[in-house]
Amino acid sequence: MAWLYAQTVGTPSGSQWRLRGHTPSPSEFAAFVWAESPLQLVVAKAQSAEPVAVAQLYGVSWRGGTGKAAFFVVPEAQRLGWAFEGLLIFLDHCFLMLKLRKLYFEIPQYNMQAVGNSLSRFLELEAKLSGHEYANGRYHDLMIYSLDRDAWHALLSAQPVDSRPLQE
What we know:
The protein is α+β, with helices and mostly antiparallel strands. It has helices at 2-8, 26-34, 81-97, 112-120, 149-157, and strands spanning 39-44, 51-61, 66-73, 102-108, 124-135, 138-148.
């Protein structure tokens, strides 16, 4: 928990995760991380066990078979294939083991570069909240994307994953 707090609170890269710049106390942070979150996966380096990413499922509607997913990857690991592979394992678990049918991703417009080409091809834009997020001195749109189980299965059966950043 201390690693995630240090990475996401008060750092430039922390604005890319769910807190988006909010600075809770350590106890508030722990409550925030565990609230409504039945699944969290930490991706770590195999040799050192140093964490480099976290994937979180939250806001699950078991009746509807939906949930929200959030990812945080430290900047130095954002383009490493094995860090991305950990996030794919998380998605696989959500769809195959938890039997969710759809995941939602709330992504500020300024964060779309971090999503990369691989998943963006399979995400469907569900909503755009114009000027919803304030960051870096201006308002940004909040994009709400979804990934359903059928699109996920298509991704699994497709050619190798392309994790390059999106082109503007």
